[in-house]
Design goal:
membrane, 509 residues, Growth Hormone, Chain: A, 2% strand, MFS, 18 helices, mainly alpha, two-stranded antiparallel ribbon, MFS_trans_sf
């Protein structure tokens, strides 16, 4: 990069053409965002496999709880502890995985380490002779698989340009939602036919297969962002690199320069736009998990229906999540892409003006002026918040309606349809906030998503403790009225972020 005041010498047109050709070749070879679409989507498929295992590892165990209690002569508290601990470490562990990935600039090594831990712990859980071993290695299993979602979001940011990320992230989550909807049924089928231990054995087999595929076919994707943000009051300076390093070169150079600080992601909370976005997403996840936790209670307590309806109850919200994720993701891509194109054209014009002044060998003061004028902020990430806001507007009404119609025992199909529609809004909001965190934190996207998981699952852990006693105390209607209030609060946070994004982004408190 040319220092301020340094004047470059004149080059022949042939030399400039050669340098430009070398620059293009270098970018195509080493920049994941320049890779062919077939290669990009192959990578997306590979990283979606661990995401599929994330909910499957939890929901497939629900039907096995009674069998585990009987074999170990354990109380419900011990077995439920296994599920509760899974949630707690599902939130804590990604902070360490993602900070390692972002700081040491590697995705693949973290995938391999986490999947190896996951696979081995599943095997030991399957052979467990007492509840203590089961709970202990259940913790280790959750630590292993917890890396998947934050790393997957980081990989999406590495490989796809901003105008493609919303759709890519929605595709990435397809397997997650399939596992969320089918996990209890798969676990019930395995438990009834082979026994509960085979749930862990099959998870270990799937983990081994995923580990083998990622080892063989996933390249290192970590991408040093072209836009390096340095904090400055109300301004983000954008500095361009002439040649992005290859992922392997970046990893080697980085390990020589910096040590690993597992708590560094928490520094992102000093940026108010990040803090408010994460709080909004956490409140959304609170509503999503309240639906999942209360499904069995709702239909066992309020309805005397067949298990077929219970199957539909598990499937209905995830199908809504899937549709909402695609609609919001694709639409936000269009808006973000338009904004990005406009801003890119503006920057090209400024670079042309800078080149003209360099050719004229103008003074250091003028060069300083040019560089100051290049201190612009890219607005396209905030378009995700715009779409998240409109996605969220349908949620409060449908959530509160869902709770009260369930309480007065209307026909079962009506709450199922309402939960499906609410799911569209909930996941549309969640998808857009996640992609905003990716776009607004180049080079730290995995850490930003891990931080959002940490806070979300902290809220969910509290929800698991309180929600069933709360329903017993005040009923389903008032419980979901409270959830609707949380949804309204998340919308208010989105409005605050949208209005203050330019002032807050990249600026620490």
């Amino acid at each position: 990069m040319t220092d301020i005041g340094e004047v470059s010498h004149q080059k022949s047109s042939s030399e400039e053409e050669l340098e430009e050709a070398e620059d293009v070749a270098h970018r195509i070879l080493y920049d994941p965002q320049k890779w062919p679409y077939l290669k990009k989507y192959r990578i997306l498929f590979l990283v979606a496999l661990p995401a599929f295992l994330t909910p499957l590892s939890n929901t497939s165990l629900y039907p096995a709880i009674s069998d585990m209690k009987e074999e170990f002569e354990a109380t419900a508290i011990i077995i439920n502890l296994l599920l509760g601990i899974y949630i707690i470490f599902r939130g804590i562990a990604p902070i360490f995985w993602s900070s390692y990935s972002d700081q040491l600039k590697t995705r693949k090594r973290v995938y391999l380490a986490s999947l190896l831990i996951y696979t081995m712990s599943n095997i030991i859980c399957g052979f467990a002779k007492n509840a203590i071993i089961l709970v202990l290695f259940g913790i280790i299993q959750s630590i292993g698989i917890s890396a998947a979602l934050s790393l997957g979001g980081g990989t999406v940011s590495d490989v796809f340009i901003p105008a493609e990320r919303g759709k890519a992230y929605a595709i990435y989550l397809v397997g997650y939602f399939i596992a969320l909807a089918s996990g209890p049924n798969i676990g019930g089928l395995i438990t009834n036919s082979l026994g509960w231990r085979w749930v862990f054995y099959i998870l270990a087999i799937l983990g081994s297969a995923t580990l083998l595929l990622i080892t063989s076919f996933l390249p290192e994707t970590f991408r040093e962002p072209e836009e390096k943000f340095t904090s400055k009051p109300h301004i983000i300076r954008i500095i361009r690199e002439s040649h992005p390093q290859s992922p392997s070169e970046e990893s080697k150079s980085f390990t020589q320069k910096k040590s690993y600080n597992p708590l560094l992601p928490f520094k992102l909370l000093l940026q108010l736009n990040i803090t408010f976005s994460i709080l909004s997403k956490s409140l959304v996840n609170l509503v999503i998990y309240s639906q999942s936790i209360l499904i069995v209670k709702m239909f066992s307590y309020y309805y005397n229906v067949s298990s077929l309806y219970l199957l539909f109850a598990y499937i209905s919200p995830p199908v809504g999540y899937l549709i909402g994720s695609f609609i919001a993701g694709i639409y936000s891509d269009r808006l973000a892409g338009y904004e990005s194109d406009v801003e890119t054209r503006k920057e090209r014009e400024m670079k042309k003006e800078e080149k003209k002044r360099l050719m004229k060998e103008e003074t250091t003061e003028i060069m300083q002026e040019i560089l100051e004028n290049r201190d612009i902020i890219y607005r396209f990430p905030v378009m995700r918040i715009y779409v998240a806001f409109y996605s969220s507007l349908i949620v409060p009404l449908f959530i509160v309606t869902y709770g009260w119609l369930t309480q007065i025992k209307v026909h079962i199909l009506i709450p199922l349809i309402i939960s499906f529609i609410a799911g569209i809004g909930l996941q549309g909001q969640s998808n857009c906030i996640s992609t905003y965190l990716i776009d607004a934190n180049p080079g730290k996207s995995a850490s930003a998503l891990a931080l959002s998981d940490f806070i979300s699952y902290f809220f969910v852990a509290i929800l698991i403790i309180l929600v069933n006693p709360l329903v017993d105390l005040i009923g389903m209607g008032f419980t979901y009225t409270i959830m609707a209030f949380f949804s309204i609060l998340s919308i208010i946070l989105l409005v605050i972020v949208f209005k203050n994004d330019e002032r807050w982004r990249g600026v620490n408190l």
